[in-house]
């Protein structure tokens, strides 16, 4: 027998003592854990605990096991929402299938289970929207799933928000990018499988009254289409509303859980056309990227927000210059011309009430609010002035951290 584990050794050590030579179905029940809320599966799937952690084991042909192992490994590296793979066991005696080992996704439930126990907190609408988000994310990354279903999707609460994870990548395919036809085919498969599973739940009297399987399944392509459009469409703005409309769009994408790669503004007679490249990114990436470009050290969500502003500023510089402006130049100019003036606008007696990056974030919100009211972009300087005059003084002084020293980057 051979074990291929990543990272080699560590997590897997205690797992090696398990009876890998036996068919999974014959393993001593004392070794196994009951996972009641799991989805239905084609293969034999069992759960074990080792070194205080839970793992899922799936018996599956070697070729597929290797395929799934490779893909899940890539997904994890790229920060895509999927279960994390530990390894595979191959060359088992008597020509037995391989076993794929994944780390149990903690605090997760299968969609199938959730649909049979609806709660006020997770409505059918929210569940279907979250499933649509997962598909859009995978499709943006060039992944054709081929088996999106309620059983193959896990669900988790993340700081109050809902998040869906891919659990079964056996049929998944990786492409540089997906065609419209591939996306729609994948979506069609998903709609069929979700519909069939809901009908099955209904047949077993596990589906609450008032949930119509076909209606719910048919809503998936609709939700997907509007999300795809929101994430990928090009917009045209008038020149005087550009900056804040770009910021608004980027914020909307972030709120939906998407990150922005590059922003391109192309001027034409009708105004500026905005093209946004949406992508999925690994955790902590924003902090590192902002630090690289500006030397600022802030928290992840703040970094995400600041980077968006930096990117829209860069697009504005490029448009003005009529040619490309490097990231480094844009970063330095943004720091000096946009960020620092806001920080400098904080009067000494109010400094320390909020972290500078948090103030900047609030000023961006304030700019958006003022621009909405005025119907034009009021600009960061005016927004900062208004913010320190009207909002900052009302921040409770007890939030002030005495040890905060406001330093210039
Ligand atoms: N890593 C994991 N974390 C949590 N649940 C899992 C994990 N792997 C599998 N499961 C559960 O087991 C079920 C079957 O696994 P799956 O990979 O879909 O097998 P199959 O290929 O036979 O469909 C899933 O629906 C899910 O509920
Ligand atoms: Mg499955």
From TrEMBL:
The DUF4032 domain, residue ranges: 226-392
Coiled coil location: none
Claim: rRNA-binding is one of the keywords in the record: no
Record's keyword terms, sorted: Kinase, Transferase
InterPro entries per the UniProt record, alphabetical: DUF4032, Kinase-like_dom_sf
Entry's Gene Ontology molecular function annotations: kinase activity
Protein origin, superkingdom: Bacteria
The keyword Kinase belongs to this UniProt entry's keyword annotation: yes
Name the record gives this protein: Lipopolysaccharide kinase (Kdo/WaaP) family protein
Organism of provenance: Geodermatophilus saharensis
Lineage: Bacteria, Bacillati, Actinomycetota, Actinomycetes, Geodermatophilales
């Amino acid at each position: 027998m051979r074990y291929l584990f990543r990272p080699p050794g560590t997590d897997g050590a205690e797992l090696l003592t398990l009876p890998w030579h036996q068919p999974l179905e014959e393993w001593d029940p004392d070794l196994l854990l009951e996972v009641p809320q799991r989805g239905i599966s084609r293969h034999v799937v069992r759960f074990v605990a080792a070194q205080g952690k839970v793992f899922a084991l799936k018996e599956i042909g070697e070729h597929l096991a290797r395929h799934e192992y490779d893909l899940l490994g890539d997904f994890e590296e790229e920060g895509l929402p999927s279960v994390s793979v530990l390894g595979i066991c191959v060359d088992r005696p008597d020509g037995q299938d391989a076993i794929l080992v994944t780390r149990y996704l903690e605090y997760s439930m299968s969609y199938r289970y959730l649909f049979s126990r609806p709660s006020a907190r997770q409505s059918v609408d929210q569940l279907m929207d979250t499933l649509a988000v997962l598909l859009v994310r995978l499709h943006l990354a060039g992944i054709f799933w081929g088996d999106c279903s309620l059983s193959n999707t896990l669900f988790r609460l993340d700081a109050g928000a809902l998040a869906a994870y891919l659990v079964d990548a056996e049929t998944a395919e990786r492409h540089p990018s997906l065609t419209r036809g591939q996306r729609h085919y994948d979506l069609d498969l998903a709609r069929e499988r979700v519909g069939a599973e809901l009908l099955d739940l209904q047949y077993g009297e596990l589906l609450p009254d008032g949930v119509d399987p076909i209606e719910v399944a048919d809503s998936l392509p609709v939700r997907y289409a509007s999300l795809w459009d929101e994430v990928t469409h090009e917009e045209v703005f008038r020149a005087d509303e550009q900056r804040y409309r770009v910021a608004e769009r980027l914020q909307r994408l972030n709120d939906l859980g998407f990150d922005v790669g590059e922003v391109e503004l192309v001027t034409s007679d009708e105004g500026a056309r905005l093209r946004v490249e949406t992508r999925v990114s690994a955790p902590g990436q924003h902090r590192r990227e902002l630090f690289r470009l500006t030397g600022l050290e802030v928290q992840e969500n703040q970094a995400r927000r600041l980077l968006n502003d930096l990117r829209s500023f860069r697009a504005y510089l490029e448009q003005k210059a009529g040619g490309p402006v490097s990231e480094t130049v844009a970063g330095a100019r943004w720091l000096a011309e946009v960020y620092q003036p806001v920080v400098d606008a904080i009067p000494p007696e109010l400094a320390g009430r909020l972290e500078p990056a948090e103030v900047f974030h609030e000023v961006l919100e304030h700019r958006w609010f003022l621009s909405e009211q005025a119907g034009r972009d009021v600009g960061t300087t005016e927004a900062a002035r208004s913010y320190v005059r009207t909002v900052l003084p009302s921040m409770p002084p007890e939030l002030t951290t005495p040890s905060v020293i406001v330093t210039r980057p």
